[in-house]
Amino acid sequence: MTEQLTGVAPGRAALLAAHPDFGRADAIGRRARQVLGFTLAAALRRFGHGDDVAVGPEVAGDPAVWAALQSMFDGLHEPVTEPSSVLAAAIAPRAPRRDGLSPTGSEPARSCTARIGERRQQTVWLWQGVHGPLTAAVDAAFGRYARTAPASRETHSHALGAGNGDFKVSTLYAAGEIERKAVETATELLCAAVPEITRETFPFIDGITFFDGDLFASGTLLSQPGIIFIERRIIDDPDRLAEALLHEALHLKLNALTLTRPVHRAGVADDSALLLPVPWHRDAASGAPHRWLANRALAAAHVYVHLVALYERHAPSARSRATGPDVCRERAAYLLTELLADASRDLGPAGVRMARWLRDVLAAAPRDHEGGAAVPGPGPRREREPGPLSRPGSTAGLPAGTLRRSAPGHRAWRPEPDLCLVATFEPWDVHVLNAYQWAFFTACDGVDSGLAVSSLRAAAPGSAATAVTRALTDLLDTGLMVIEQPRTNWREETGCSPSPCWPTACSSRNGAADGADHSGDAEDLRNPAGP
């Protein structure tokens, strides 16, 4: 069925798994639960369901709660008009844990599970139909996507159709023993080939659903964290299913990461965003290459680099693989080159750092075809965030005036030096700030803007001083703070109303999977080399 390669470089998979910010599942999951727990507690307080509710980590990581909070989190969706309905799945988490799909007990007992990973207790549930709020939400989200997906939607296999409407309607079906065995066989293959990667990726999978139809070979939906959708026809091929599971699990991991770090800039999907041509995806009618936003290009590069590591350890037949090692390497290199050029303006600081890390991993530990020896690559390391990037609408200089906090009703929490959270109640939003933005927001209300910037720049190391100005610019863009400009005698005499604040646009929503709207992911002032 497959040919096992020997004498290949062991370094790439280890590098991908070991990065303290982008690789380690425990660190990413912990930060995501902190953000979601804070969001839930603040939301319950804001909308009258409790006051200072203590939210445990098992509740914040609950799939039903996570899915409910996704639609409330800044940058992921439009503002919620009736939050009570969104919070319905999250109000009862203080009940004892039950044997259901979630700790809330909102689902019936699991009737079909599959073991994944190297530890016997690591299992995922397999779709058995609608049993409660979580499964109903999964079914509804998949149905909406199946009805509205564009006809040009690319698939992951040449054997499957593209788009919807022109093909059989896609519907979920209940998994059985065949699906369970297929999942376990495919995940065992992955664990044998790249155990370092599976240990840091499988924890982000909660459930797997199967469907009939021609929508795609496999996929995930942002509104349903932890859920993978698999087309029936690939379950008979363990290599193909293994690749699909790894591919989608990496998307789930990246979605969790973007909750807590500024991977994309706010407005990454707006009209000013740069569209990258993708030569290997072309329109069937015109032959023109499809164009991707930076968030999609980064997600694809993330997958391609991991597939290179998989193919170095395990070589499926040409029939079973969607691409191949050389193709994955070429596509990853192309996307990362584009992302680190002009498209870098659509990435946040963490996104630029992530792209650089993936580029370094791709170049590391090359396979020596003659001797089979591995050339050691660079170990995981923390880097400073890049300096200010040229972005649409960025301001070169800040006007003189007094900094004012424009969120009188808010709740703030700083669980880690580089994870600073602010929830505003009017309007409802959740923001993740970096250490510099936190200092401006908590300590500079009523302070002259020039004095505040100069003071923080003096406290910051020289290489990070320029990040201070950018931090304030981004903070002003979110609307959390404004600069009050002094009245002029001319305006007072003429009766004209001055514009009291700068900038005039108070908020910009991020259309990508990045709840960390505008956070700069910069270092703690006391730890300039931090993440």
TrEMBL record:
Protein's name according to its UniProt entry: HEXXH motif-containing putative peptide modification protein
Biased composition (Basic and acidic residues): 515-531
UniProt organism field: Streptomyces poriferorum
UniProt region (Disordered), positions on chain: 368-410, 507-531
